[in-house]
Design a protein that fits this description.
317 residues; alpha/beta; two-stranded antiparallel sheet
Amino acid sequence: MAKKYWSRSKRASSWRKISVGIWGKPADPTVYGYECLDADDLLDYLDEVSEASGEKVTLTTFLVKILADTFAAYPDLNSIVIGNRVLRRENVDIFVQVAIANEGDGQADLSGVKLRDVDKMDFVAIAKKLRSRATQVRTGQDAEMEQTKSMVDKVPPMLMPWMLKIVDFLTYAVPFELDAIGVRSDPFGSAMVTNVGQFDIRQGFAPLVPASRCPLVCMPCAVRDYAFVYDKQVVVRRGLNCSFTLDHRIFDGYQIGQIVREFRNRVNHPRDYYPPADHWREPSQVQAANTDAPVAKAKAAGKRTPEAAAPSGSTSS
């Protein structure tokens, strides 16, 4: 009988024996990765869009839009594992995690909102929707979230694993909607975004949440100065560490490369992919800006303009 291609080692260390007893064979499909992105131009662009639109467009909002556009451009990435099959989602929905401070005991709770059909929205519309929903969640006015919290509060800790399994079965295995009894269809959507920059975390990785069936978590961290190399010259610019946690059952190196390239290009060169800030400015504001432009240019050149000229009958020094 032919022998196997391995043999027993002469002596195994104590730790090796213990570790084999602690862990079983690998069964976790999680893939981690991160990249430091030059966000200097992006942050200027978001400030311009915020000023023009009157709506604060945050880094989180922009990353939600990038994810949505990536799923729209590559529909096979927008998938979910049901049973033993990888199925394509019909909608592009993004879940944004929201931290809720509890002033009473100094603790904080973690919640979130799902934004539906984000690929059909621009990021000003996303910003408005996210601000409205996040405010409702933080103030206890979001009906869906309050219903979920109420149900969770009533379940004893020892029964929580069983309740989660039942909800998971009803949510993903039953082939029809059960919203009427409080079981929401695909409550977490295609991907999650959790921004920890507000906590001054410079780098980290978020876990995949098994019950969410969400195969991608994007975690932007704190923006700070980094050294970047352009044309063999080192320059200091505002950089963003952004990590990704992905389900290897859906994403392999090829698909991950598509996601990373979309993120890198759109963060580095937002004006190449999205409209100028004036796109969101009211028509009257655009007209006023166009009228004021020659005046500002003439003033910069040191020339007299109609507005700067002295009134009739007077002299200018």
